[in-house]
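Lab notebook, design round three. We kept the backbone fixed and only want residue identities now. Task for the bench partner: fill in a sequence for the structure below.
Input structure tokens:
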């Protein structure tokens, strides 16, 4: 039995139609229909009831689906362990060197290293003394547009919030093929990676025969399926500024723990120094025509002592309510987002240790 067929079945169950599921998976509707017919013929059971209004699980499908979900979770966990083992054996070494050093000394050093550790990839960038110094001080991360979400999820240098989003993106087969450039370019409000990228003020680099231009991901995505990309441009990379948050929070809500389309996502981050909130950010996905972020609301908390956050929490949460779209279950999205943000703010005021703030389930 092909695991990809079971993964596709799980997506169809959530999407409620072949067309929406095909769009999510990147398949043609005819190809997805053929895949499900093949699965049903293989096991000799009807799993789906099809109608003009959509598709839903048959009674047999409802009986089998809990076990299929558990199987997919085990499969994802196994692939995660396999990737972790591969990551332990493979690494990328990035070097920044002066022009004179990179041409004379680095090639021999790299050759010696590769002879002993052939599995290591070495990337070298060279420049003037000022450029090298700026690269070291900048601390930004550049990610090529064709980097897959699986590669980002296991990267030792990608920001944690982005790794959280990448590691929860669809099924393992999708994560091994879906790219950060595609996820941004698709401009779906339910896209996993644009949400933390917008929180981190990440930029996209757009390249054409006339040169390059950079803009914030928040400005690049205008609305659902609408971007600022010109006809002669492609996305070539994403640049994420150095992050120094002391506390982070990430939550994705879907119908399942694995292989789920986002119903709602939230990232929040704060930097606390000497008992004062010097930076606070939040962004919410699947909450409107594009990722929602309100810098005006964030300013209500910045500069406040953590011991005084309760005095402005409700004002902040009320301001955030206005960010959520009035369409598509607005009360659910507002109330759920409000509870998650309140949880994060309360954790800061309670003196939560630096690092990840998690909701215990």
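Proposed sequence:
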């Amino acid at each position: 039995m092909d695991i990809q067929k079971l993964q596709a079945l799980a997506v169809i169950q959530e999407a409620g139609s072949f067309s929406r599921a095909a769009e999510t998976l990147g398949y043609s509707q005819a190809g997805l229909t053929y895949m499900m017919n093949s699965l049903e013929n293989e096991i000799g059971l009807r799993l789906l009831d099809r109608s003009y209004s959509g598709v839903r699980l048959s009674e047999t499908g409802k009986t089998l689906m809990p076990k299929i979900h558990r199987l997919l979770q085990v499969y994802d966990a196994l692939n995660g362990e396999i990737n972790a083992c591969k990551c332990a054996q493979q690494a990328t070494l990035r070097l920044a060197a002066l022009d004179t050093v990179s041409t004379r000394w680095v090639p021999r050093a790299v050759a010696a290293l590769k002879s002993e550790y052939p599995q290591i990839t070495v990337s070298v960038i060279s420049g003037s003394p000022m450029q090298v110094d700026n690269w070291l001080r900048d601390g930004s991360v550049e990610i090529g547009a064709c980097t897959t979400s699986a590669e980002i999820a296991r990267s030792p240098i990608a920001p944690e919030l982005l790794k959280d989003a990448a590691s929860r993106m669809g099924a393992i087969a999708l994560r091994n093929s879906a790219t950060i450039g595609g996820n941004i370019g698709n401009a779906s409000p339910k896209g996993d990676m644009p949400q933390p990228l917008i929180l981190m003020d990440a930029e996209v680099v757009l390249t054409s025969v006339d040169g390059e231009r950079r803009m914030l991901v928040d400005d690049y995505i205008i609305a659902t399926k609408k971007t600022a990309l010109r006809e002669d441009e492609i996305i070539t990379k994403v640049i994420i500024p150095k992050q120094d948050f002391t506390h982070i929070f990430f939550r994705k809500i879907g119908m399942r723990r694995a292989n789920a389309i986002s119903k709602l996502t939230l990232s929040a981050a704060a930097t606390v120094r000497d008992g004062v909130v010097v930076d606070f950010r939040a962004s919410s996905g699947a909450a409107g025509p594009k990722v929602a972020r309100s810098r005006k609301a964030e300013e209500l908390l910045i500069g406040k002592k953590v011991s005084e956050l309760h005095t402005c929490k409700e004002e902040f949460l009320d301001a955030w309510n206005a960010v959520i779209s009035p369409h598509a279950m607005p009360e659910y999205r507002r109330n759920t987002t409000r509870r998650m943000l309140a949880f994060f703010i309360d954790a800061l005021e309670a003196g939560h240790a630096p690092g990840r703030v998690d909701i215990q389930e």
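Keep this in mind before ordering anything: The mean pLDDT is 86.
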